[in-house]
Amino acid sequence: AVERSRLLDRLIDEQAAAQPERFRVLTGDRPTGPLHVGHLLASLRNRVRLQQRGVETFVVIADYQVVTDRDAVGDIGENVHGLVLDYLAAGLDPDRTTIFTHSAVPALGQLVLPFLSLVTDGELRRNPTVKDELALSGGRPLSGLLLTYPVHQAADILFCHGRVVPVGRDQLPHLELTRQLARRFNARYAGGQPVFAEPEALLSDVPLLLGTDGTKMSKSRGNTINLRDTADETADRIRAARTDGERRITYEPVRRPEVANLLRLAGLFTGESPQTVAERVGDSGAAGLKRVVTEAVNDGLAGHRARRRQLAGDPASVTAVLHEGNRRANEVAERTLATVRAVMGMAY
Ligand code: ATP
Ligand code: MG
Question: How far apart are CA 219 and CA 31, in angstroms?
Answer without folding.
Answer: 9
